[in-house]
Amino acid sequence: MAALLQFDISISFESSIGNACLFHREDYEKIFSNPNQPGKSPTTRFESSKVSGVVPMNAIELIQNFLDPIKWMNMFPTIVTKARTIEVLDSGDLGGSIQLMYEKLHILSPLVEARDYYFVRCFRKLDEATWIMVDVSYDLIKDIQSSVPSHAWKFPSGCAIQDLDDGESRVTWIEHVQVDEKISVHHMFLPLLVVRQTYGAKRWIVTLQRMCERYNVEVGATCLPRHDLKEVLNDPEGFENVMQISLRMVKRFCEILSMTEKLDFPTSSQFKSEDRVSIRKNEEITQQKGFIVTAATSLWLPLSCRNVFNFLKDNKSRGQWDVLAGGNIVTELARIKTGCVRGNNITIIQKIIVTPRDWSLDVA
């Protein structure tokens, strides 16, 4: 891992996609030969990438979030569906912890199978300002993985964290895996997986940056303009509740999209092959007990993701697609800006129903 973190032109080359750095397969295997690596099949492929970025959180806080599986899931809700520590092999301090872990990763579509990893996570302190986190697959565990739709094996992957002494850290992320898909990848997502590195280092870095920005807003490290909060969120407890509810909403939404392992309805002629339907028990204590039926699909649009995003977040166009809006006017009551990128925010909106006699207000 330490060797990979240093830019070595003999095993790396710049990718034309983004700023990712990929590995030459043959050169890598010559330098880091391993007789115990998993076998290959005609469907085997390798994914490798390396990206650096500045993250608005100090190194110690980052390591504490990476050590705890719950915090790990909260830090990467759009990538990590499940995570748990199986065994702590060496409790150590922040510079010497080793633990056996499990995680399930997914992309945001029910048409792509999730990836399961059993791996050893190790932390090492390289110097006074630099730490590394290394993940390596522990074993194929064939008896466990025989029922999963894909075999995914982690070669040394992880990140280097360099503390910058100003509350920020420079993080260099490496993802290097071997994947053997048992089920053919849906044609819509194959280019994203193979070419654009959907599970690649850039996605991890960008997600980490956004969630750290959000965390700084929640704990008060980032001051918000008062006109954004308005009267709705002036109460500190109310502000904290809105932040927590929004995180649960994101996590629940992402978990629902990864429904390939729990289909309760077989695909029938009534559903297109791109449709997925599942049913689950409602475990939320704040809601009535019962079952929840969820339907999801993915589709291709001849529009840029930016144009689609702008359309969906525009309150003026919400009535055109939101069933709950019912074609009515929607107005914004309050907004919390959760990041540097325009559009990263939490909003409280209000539906206005115009009747012949008066105005009726519904708050969403």
From TrEMBL:
<keyword id="KW-0238">DNA-binding</keyword>
<feature type="domain" description="START">
    <location>
        <begin position="47"/>
        <end position="217"/>
    </location>
</feature>
<dbReference type="Pfam" id="PF25797">
    <property type="entry name" value="PDF2_C"/>
</dbReference>
<keyword id="KW-0371">Homeobox</keyword>
<dbReference type="InterPro" id="IPR057993">
    <property type="entry name" value="HD-Zip_IV_C"/>
</dbReference>
<dbReference type="InterPro" id="IPR042160">
    <property type="entry name" value="HD-Zip_IV"/>
</dbReference>
<dbReference type="GO" id="GO:0008289">
    <property type="term" value="F:lipid binding"/>
</dbReference>
<keyword id="KW-0539">Nucleus</keyword>
<protein>
    <submittedName>
        <fullName>Homeobox protein GLABRA2</fullName>
    </submittedName>
</protein>
<dbReference type="GO" id="GO:0003677">
    <property type="term" value="F:DNA binding"/>
</dbReference>
<keyword id="KW-0805">Transcription regulation</keyword>
<dbReference type="InterPro" id="IPR023393">
    <property type="entry name" value="START-like_dom_sf"/>
</dbReference>
<keyword id="KW-0804">Transcription</keyword>
<dbReference type="InterPro" id="IPR002913">
    <property type="entry name" value="START_lipid-bd_dom"/>
</dbReference>
<dbReference type="Pfam" id="PF01852">
    <property type="entry name" value="START"/>
</dbReference>
